[in-house]
Amino acid sequence: MNSKYDLFSDALLSLVKSWRSALDARFRPFGLSQARWQVLLKLLRASEPLTQCDLAQRVGIEPASLVRLLDALQQEGLIVREADPQDRRSKRISLTPSGLSLSRSLGAVADQLREEVLGSLSESELSQCTGVLEQLRVRLANLIEDGSE
To answer: Could you give the strand order of the β-sheet that contains 79-84, starting from the edge strand earlier in sequence?
Structure first.
C-alpha cells in the first residue's frame, strides 16, 4: 500500500466521522437520531419534494430502511407523503410547517458548525479542496457505475 493514500483516506474518513459526531452533539437537545436529522436536513435543502428513492440515495440508506423513518416522522407530524403526479406508484416527501420549522432550526445549527469549521479557510483553499473532493466523488461514481455493468 501507498502510505500517502493511506494518510489521505484515513484523514478523510476521520473528518466525516468527526463532522457527524459534532452535529450529533449539537442536535442532541432536539432529541433526534442521526438518521432523522439527516432526512430532515436533506428535505430542507431540496428544491422540491423528493421521492422516497431520491431521499434514500441522498441519505445513503436503502429505500426499505427509509420507510420506517418516514413512518415515524409522519406520525410526529414532521413530513407528508403525497402521490407523485408523474408516477402514481411513487410518493413525494415534503416537510409539514412544523417539520419545516424544526428543519430550519437544525439547518441554523449545522450552518453555525460549518462556519466554525470552515471559516478560517481562504476562498482559494476552500475552492481547491472542494474541487479535489468533487473529482474524487466523480471518480468513485464512475467506478461504481462501471462495476454494476
So the answer is: 50-51, 87-95, 79-84
List the domain boundaries for the chain.
Answer: 3-118, 121-149
pTM of the entire structure?
Answer: 0.84
104: helix, coil or strand? helix
Residue 149: what residue type?
E
Angle CA 92–81–107, to nearest 5: 80
Average the pLDDT over 12-22 and give the result: 95
- CA dist., res. 7 & res. 10, Å (int): 5
CATH class name, domain 3-118? mainly alpha
| Distance in angstroms between the alpha carbons of the first and the last residue of the chain | 28
- Give me 138's grid cell: 466523480
